[in-house]
Amino acid sequence: MGIDEPDIDPEAFLDDVEMRVGEIVAVEEFPEARKDVYKLDVDFGGERLQSAAGLTRYDREELLGRQVIAVVNLGTVSIAGYESQCLVTGVDAADGVVHLQPESEVENGTRVY
């Protein structure tokens, strides 16, 4: 019953895709990137990963301390020489990408199912 894509095996998805909650602890401009993105450092509770994320609808200060949901097992992707180590999730809106976050604060590193 996929909307646009065929159904997948739910167990395979949970086995293959690891999503975790993390807190944005640093935000930098990224003028070298072709797209409008920030460089983020995200704390997953004992491990920090960096991400190139298109969350520029937000001011940098507005993102600091926010929790996000990220895919942490995609491997590293090089973007304009920057090693993006996780994919911060978001949805497109008229004024830019809106990041996904837990409804209330949870421990950094909590797995998303």
Automatic annotation (TrEMBL):
One of its GO terms (molecular function) is tRNA binding. Keywords: RNA-binding, tRNA-binding. Coiled coil: none annotated. InterPro entries: NA-bd_OB-fold (IPR012340), tRNA-bd_dom (IPR002547), Tyrosine-tRNA_ligase_regulator (IPR051270). Residues 13-113 form the TRNA-binding domain. The lineage of its organism: Archaea, Methanobacteriati, Methanobacteriota, Stenosarchaea group, Halobacteria. This is Protein secretion chaperonin CsaA.
